[in-house]
């Protein structure tokens, strides 16, 4: 008996069958078409797959008659097509590597189906026997069971083998179905024994797909159809997946046997399935991220006040609810799940409960979460039961066996469950979700089934008070009427009241009226908007899986500010992130950032928890939720989500502080007012004071004052300053801010500042005319000798003001005049591990010197040298610092204003090359994102000791958009060229591009990702001197 023989014996004329097989074989062997199917077959064999996906458009271009026949008569055309594939596989496979013995190979069809692409609602009798394309949601999957295809039996009496093949109506081919009677005796009545090792079985599964709800006609229920999935198609999809299905629409005969009814049961026999969105790998569907998306995400994350920007872009058409929007944003980001070695599971998902008066946008917020979250399932209190939320034991229609059917929370694993009218749910059903909300599992012990299912989801619920209207004169517990055992499982509980306030009511009414006046772009006024079904006609698209296509270069993460829609956005800033970009940002932050608690944040959270518990014992504060040990985990989850919003790998103290502010608002409706002394001042929400301290507005006011001081000094307002400092740098400089609060530099009167400036200029041009650097004590002595002496604090403050105005350069008790005998001044920094030769590179370029006894740099050093580029004098101010960790506190000042960087490693020490990635990350965290970076492999004279291959370094530089060169400060090779190249590149960018605001997202042009220009005066002319 031959194994792997073709089972679908054709009932067509042998010559016609052979002609079709030959034509299909020629099509697969043809290499002049759009697809090389010979290579595709080899890849299929190598991947141990058994289904070749053929584009019907390719077949249509090769032979239109056969393409039409394949769609309209798959029973007649698909068997010879698969026969041709089987023959070609046997020809192309490698007998030494590929085992194809006993395997059947199949053809899957995708592409444009034309009239054969319909919805489940449009399937008609005319479609029977045709290859159809459908789209829908998988609602049910049966167990995978074996279906016998060939049985082999042995007769002891006659010592003979008997074989029987089976066909049913769900198989392709024109042959009639065979009897399903299983032989137990031969024709003589002798007993037969089944040889199971010689039998052939095929995997079999039944699924149901339902019409997508958004495409169902108004007022009608979505319709479904059963699908047979055989062989390699089983377990390709799961309930909840949105798929495109290709299969043959067939009838299985009378629905009820032995009756006179003329209705027949119909189903689809699967041929190819393409998953539109799924939960592959236990996760959720991911949006493809382009390189531009990642650059924009990193750029936005470095902005000061990035969390407020994200929160304002969340449901901008909903008026107010600032703290609720922040909470929803944190819920979408989530905390960090912990699975300890001892089996303890600590959830990272955040649960939110909204309790409030009617018409306070609770349901609208749920709708927004449904549209924003990659995986979200909606339900209501009255429309769901306990088993509907968790899991139910049902009976399989085909086998009669008991099986589990997943509920809403199991289907929403790694997603969000939105429950509206939570208070309408019965107590019995509510108890069913207790385990899900804390342990995040569903344990079933019914009808002989005992198992545990994962339900790792966030829960956001909306409920009304027990009296319909929230009574502020009663305790929160008497308004909410939910047990503490359930309330403690919600991380945040917001009480939303519909307060009567004339000003606020007027603003809400204006907002609602503006919403009703909104007309979508391109839609004529007064004409009803047409429903858009967005039905994809090309099954499978251009590839088997969605690829991260390159985004257009002019794509912006912001959408145009519209006063009719974006009422929740600060009108002074008027920046709103687009919905698409916000989804990508949340996906990136949630999946690629795993922050860990810092000691400072842990101490802060511990103190806050203790204080909250002590406040509770005082008994004078009404709280909305119980304070238990779960509150401590809530603080950790909220602080971690805050860190994720900044794309930070560490949960800083400021994140814990922000988490405390949000928790206090949810518990007590307290609004924390940050102060310089860090003493917490709180005020009740709804008071006359402002609810929040807008970081960006405070930054703007602070720097408007500084710009005014710059103008009075005769300089220009600094265009390089922008709210781009990250929360991380704020945490690092908190100690400096606190010390500045205690001892603040005195304000310098303008008259004294002008006098001091004039004396400094005179001293630098006369006494120290020949010196490039001047020690500050000597400079101050010369200044005080020219007239009435200045106090030390006043002199220091005046020097700082001149430094901010780029009129003098300060570093380590030394000063350098901002000369005017050059056209541009570029600050370039040298970074890299200690001992890589940075100081010798600096001395070789600026003074043409090299020292074998060079010691490690202490603090910061810098030197200057002027070069000529295209007739312009370029002065390079090159800064060098130590590579040791103990000097890393100077990073902010060291990188400030730098437009170029040389990232140096030692080619003879591989450890210095390994640390290049860390240095590059620090550079991009602290420096401007437009900085020009060159990777420099120093000490090229030590080629006999080389530990870093040149090609490896070149590949790293190309991957990170860096230029690359190898130098030797000892023999001066390529040192001059390295500095010339980077300064020339900066100059060309300066001369060709306009400086973009640091708030703007960088848009690459021609492969570059930088944009720099020099300072300009009021007339737009290039200002000589100063640093750009």
TrEMBL record:
In the UniProt record, what gene is named as encoding this protein?
MCM3
Q: Which PANTHER family is this protein grouped with?
A: DNA REPLICATION LICENSING FACTOR MCM FAMILY MEMBER, DNA REPLICATION LICENSING FACTOR MCM3-RELATED
- A Pfam family matched in the record: MCM_OB
Q: What organism, scientifically named, is this protein from?
A: Malassezia equina
From start to end residue, where is composition biased (Acidic residues)? 689-708
State the name under which the record lists this protein: DNA helicase
What EC number(s) are associated with this protein in UniProt?
A: 3.6.4.12
Q: Which InterPro entries match?
A: AAA+_ATPase, MCM, MCM_CS, MCM_dom, MCM_lid, MCM_N, MCM_OB, NA-bd_OB-fold
Q: Which residues form the MCM C-terminal AAA(+) ATPase domain?
A: 306-512
């Amino acid at each position: 008996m031959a194994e792997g023989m073709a089972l679908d014996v054709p009932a067509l004329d042998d010559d016609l069958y052979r002609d079709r097989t030959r034509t299909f074989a020629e099509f697969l062997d043809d290499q002049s078409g759009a697809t090389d199917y010979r290579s595709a077959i080899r890849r299929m064999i190598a991947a141990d797959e058994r289904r070749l996906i053929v584009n019907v458009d390719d077949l249509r271009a090769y032979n239109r008659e056969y393409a039409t026949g394949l769609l309209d008569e798959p029973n007649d055309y698909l068997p010879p097509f698969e026969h041709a594939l089987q023959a070609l596989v046997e020809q192309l496979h490698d007998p030494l590597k590929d085992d194809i013995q006993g395997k059947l190979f199949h053809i899957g069809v995708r592409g444009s189906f034309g009239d054969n692409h319909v919805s489940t609602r449009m399937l008609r009798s005319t479609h029977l026997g045709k290859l159809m394309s459908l789209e829908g949601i998988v609602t049910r999957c049966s167990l995978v069971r074996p279906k016998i295809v060939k049985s082999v039996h042995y007769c002891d009496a006659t010592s003979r083998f008997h074989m029987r093949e089976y066909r049913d109506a769900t198989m392709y081919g024109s042959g009639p179905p065979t009897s399903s009677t299983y032989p137990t005796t031969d024709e003589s009545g002798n007993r037969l024994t089944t040889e199971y090792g010689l039998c052939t079985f095929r995997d079999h599964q039944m699924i149901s797909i339902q019409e997508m709800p958004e495409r169902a006609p108004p007022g009608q229920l979505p319709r479904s159809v059963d699908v047979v999935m055989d062989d390699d198609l089983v377990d390709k999809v799961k309930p909840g997946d949105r798929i495109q299905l290709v299969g043959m629409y067939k009838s299985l005969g009378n629905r009820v046997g032995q009756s006179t009814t003329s209705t027949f049961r119909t189903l689809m026999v699967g041929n190819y399935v393409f998953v539109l969105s799924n939960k592959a790998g236990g996760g959720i569907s991911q949006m493809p991220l382009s390189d531009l998306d990642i650059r924009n995400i990193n750029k936005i994350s470095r902005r000061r006040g990035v969390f407020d920007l994200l929160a304002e872009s969340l449901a901008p058409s909903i008026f107010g609810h600032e703290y609720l929007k922040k909470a929803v944003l944190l819920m979408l980001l989530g905390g960090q799940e912990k699975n300890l070695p001892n089996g303890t599971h600590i959830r990272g998902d955040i649960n939110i409960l909204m309790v409030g008066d009617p018409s306070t946008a609770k349901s609208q917020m749920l709708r927004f979460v449904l549209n924003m979250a990659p995986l979200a399932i909606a339900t209501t209190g009255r429309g769901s039961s306990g088993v509907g939320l968790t899991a139910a034991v049902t009976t399989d229609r085909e086998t009669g066996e008991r099986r589990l059917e997943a509920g809403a929370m199991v289907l929403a694993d790694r997603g969000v469950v939105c429950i509206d009218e939570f208070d309408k749910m019965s107590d019995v059903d509510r108890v069913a979700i207790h385990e899900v909300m804390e342990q995040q599992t569903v344990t079933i012990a019914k009808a002989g089934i005992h198992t545990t299912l994962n339900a790792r989801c966030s829960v956001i619920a909306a409920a009304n008070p027990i009296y319909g209207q929230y009574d502020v004169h009663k305790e929160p517990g008497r308004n909410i009427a939910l047990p503490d055992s359930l309330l403690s499982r919600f991380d945040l509980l917001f009480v939303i009241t519909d307060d009567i306030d004339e000003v606020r009511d007027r603003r809400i009414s204006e907002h609602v009226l503006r919403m009703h006046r909104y007309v979508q772009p391109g839609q004529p006024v007064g004409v009803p908007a047409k429903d858009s079904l967005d039905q994809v006609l090309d099954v499978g698209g251009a590839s088997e899986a969605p690829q991260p296509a390159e985004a257009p270069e002019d794509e912006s993460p912001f959408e145009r500010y519209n006063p009719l829609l974006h009422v929740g956005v600060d009108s002074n800033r008027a920046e709103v992130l687009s919905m698409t970009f916000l989804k990508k940002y949340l996906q990136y932050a949630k999946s690629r950032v795993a922050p860990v608690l810092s000691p400072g944040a842990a101490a802060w959270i511990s103190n806050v928890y203790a204080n909250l518990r002590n406040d509770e014992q005082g008994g004078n504060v009404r709280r909305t939720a119980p304070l238990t040990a779960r509150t401590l985990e809530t603080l950790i989850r909220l602080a971690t989500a805050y860190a994720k919003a900044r794309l930070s790998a560490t949960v800083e103290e400021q994140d814990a502080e922000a988490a405390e502010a949000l928790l206090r608002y949810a518990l007590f409706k307290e609004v924390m007012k940050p102060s310089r002394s860090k003493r917490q001042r709180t005020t009740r929400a709804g008071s006359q004071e402002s609810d929040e301290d807008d970081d960006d507005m405070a930054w703007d006011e602070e720097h408007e004052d500084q710009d005014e001081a710059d103008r009075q000094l005769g300089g220009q307002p600094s265009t390089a300053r922008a709210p781009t400092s990250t929360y991380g740098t704020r945490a690092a400089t908190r100690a400096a801010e606190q010390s500045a609060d205690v001892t603040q530099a005195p304000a310098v009167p303008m008259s004294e500042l002008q006098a001091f400036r004039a004396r400094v200029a005179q001293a630098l041009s006369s006494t120290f005319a020949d010196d490039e650097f001047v020690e500050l004590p000597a400079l101050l002595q010369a200044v005080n000798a020219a007239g009435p002496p200045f106090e030390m604090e006043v002199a220091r403050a005046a020097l700082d003001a001149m430094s901010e105005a780029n009129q003098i350069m300060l570093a380590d008790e030394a000063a350098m005049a901002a000369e005017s005998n050059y056209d541009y001044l570029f600050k370039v920094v040298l970074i890299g591990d200690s001992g890589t030769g940075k100081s010798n590179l600096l001395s070789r370029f600026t003074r043409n010197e090299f020292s074998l006894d060079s010691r490690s740099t202490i603090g910061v050093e810098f030197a200057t040298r002027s070069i000529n580029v295209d007739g312009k004098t370029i002065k390079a101010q090159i800064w060098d610092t130590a590579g040791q960790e103990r000097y890393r506190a100077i990073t902010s000042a060291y990188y400030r204003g730098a437009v170029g960087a040389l990232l140096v490693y030692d080619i003879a020490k591989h450890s210095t090359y390994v640390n290049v990635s860390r240095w590059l990350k620090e550079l991009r965290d602290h420096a401007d994102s437009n900085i020009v970076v060159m990777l420099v492999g120093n000490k090229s004279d030590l080629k006999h000791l080389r530990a870093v291959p040149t090609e490896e370094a070149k590949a790293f530089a190309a991957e990170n958009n860096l230029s690359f060169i190898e130098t030797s400060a000892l023999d001066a090779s390529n040192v001059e060229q390295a500095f010339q190249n980077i300064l020339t590149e900066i100059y060309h960018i300066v001369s060709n591009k306009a400086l973009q605001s640091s708030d703007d997202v960088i848009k690459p042009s021609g492969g570059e990702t930088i944009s720099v220009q020099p300072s300009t005066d009021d007339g737009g002319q290039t200002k000589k001197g100063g640093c750009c």
